[in-house]
Amino acid sequence: MTPASGRGPLRFGVSLAPDASVPLLRTAQEADRFGLDLLGVRDRPYRRDTADALTLVAAALAATSRIRVFPAVACLPLRPPAVLAKAVATMDRLSGGRVELGLGAGTSWDGVEAYGGARPANAAAARRALEEAVQIIRLHWSDQSGLRYQGEHYGFTALQAGPAPVHPIGIWLGVTGPRGLDLAGRVADGWIAPSSLVPPKRLADGQRRLDDAAAGAGRDPGEIRRVYVLEGSLDARDARSFLHGPPRQWIYELTELAIGHRIDSFLFGGPQEQMAEFALEVVPAVREEIARERGGTVAARG
């Protein structure tokens, strides 16, 4: 099996917490103006004083002109897959194809239950529900008619699918465990990993598991996008730890993640007031370093 090359278009973005007390749309507009490629909106509807993630995605798309926006990741137990598919496809059509879909099996089960969601019997059941959701969402986006799906966790019947998105929306799974990576390798278009749960020492094993599962399913591992959420902070002082240090440290670490670990998409998950420094100082330098390493030009989007 040939591993993914890591030569996909490089993307940089921001992971936005939907804190209703901060100017969320201004942050989205700044990310767009700074030239970032991606805006991921965290989906935690059961938390107090948070904006609804899908509503915020739609509003951010309306307030921007070029950045791609997506839930990162949609909480499946509170987002029925057929309804989620229609909402995401509608936003994609209205935005001219600027939507992707991050999807997760769910966490914080006490909060999910408090908001009317069901707690799965075990981790295996949560993964099966996630796999069924991916199948239903893709059916909904197809041009088929007379659709019928009956799984263990979800059912779906529709005389006609649609609306279809205007571009092939990527379904990126937010998973961290070995079985979740197997699932992502088999069925997903991308993998979203937070740095706190998948530090560099775990990335190699995770990438290998993802590649092996993709190859075993007859897929090209190089077509799976690798999205890494950078949970750290930019600090003008000396380096303290991974992703906690000055811009020069971040430039080195992100270049190593791209070249050595084949990460092709980075979401800044640090303090929002540091986003400008990340976008305007770190990102261009990382692009230059990677282009130099690869002996060519790294595209911003694709």
Structure description:
The structure is a single chain. The chain is α/β, with parallel strands linked by helices and 302 residues long. The chain has nine helices and 13 strands. β8, α6 (178-187) and β9 (190-194) form a beta-alpha-beta unit. The longest helix is centred in the last third of the chain and has 20 residues, at 275-294. The protein is globular, with a radius of gyration of 19 Å.
Question: Topology, please?
Answer:
Blueprint lengths: L10 E6 L7 H10 L4 E4 L11 H11 L4 E4 L2 E2 L5 H15 L5 E4 L4 H6 L8 H18 L4 E6 L4 E6 L10 E4 L3 H10 L2 E5 L5 H17 L8 E6 L2 E2 L9 E2 L1 H15 L3 E4 L6 H20 L8
Parallel strand pairs: 1-2, 1-13, 2-3, 4-5, 5-8, 8-9, 9-10, 10-13, 11-12
Antiparallel strand pairs: 6-7
Helix pairs in contact: 1-2, 2-3, 3-5, 5-6, 6-7, 8-9
Largest sheet: 9 strands, parallel
Number of strands: 13
The low-confidence runs, each spanning 5 or more residues with pLDDT under 50, are 1-7
* Widest β-sheet, arrangement of strands: 3-2-1-13-10-9-8-5-4
Evaluate the radius of gyration. Answer: 19 Å
Number of helices: 9
Mean residue pLDDT: 92
Gap from first CA to last CA: 25 Å
Order of helices and strands: EHEHEEHEHHEEEHEHEEEHEH
Assess the beta-strand content as a share of residues.
Answer: 15-25%
Structural class: alpha/beta
Kindly state the percentage of residues in helix. Answer: 40-55%
Shape: globular
What's this model, at a glance?
The chain has nine helices and 13 strands. It is α/β, with parallel strands linked by helices and 302 residues long.
